[in-house]
Amino acid sequence: MALTPAQQREMLELSFEQAEHGFVYYHYRWSRGIPVTAEERDEYLTIPVFGSRRAWRRSLAGRETTPPRAYRPVARKLLKMMPLSMAIYSLFFGVVGLILGFNEANMAPATVYVAVGCAMLFFGGSIVAARRRAI
Prior knowledge:
By secondary structure, the protein is mainly α.
């Protein structure tokens, strides 16, 4: 499944947060923010999702940084962007994992099936909850 240009841009926009004088760029969730201008943000957003951003990041080297951003709001935004089909598949395979786990005679595979099934149900439920909640 290929992403449309609008979906690519929307995904890349999650790396930025609005600030007083432009935007703050976060390379990873746990990284410190780097203030950037609107022009620099637009330059970043024109690079394809799977393209290299090393030269762009090198141009930011040495700038003052801000503290890392809060985890939960970013996680909700990411979950909200995931397609509903991903939630449906996750919920389906979570139920399958639980059924297989509770019907397995051997304890080791049963534990694995139940653990993976619970994780899949949690992931699928998180997507549904994020899509229903106003962020």
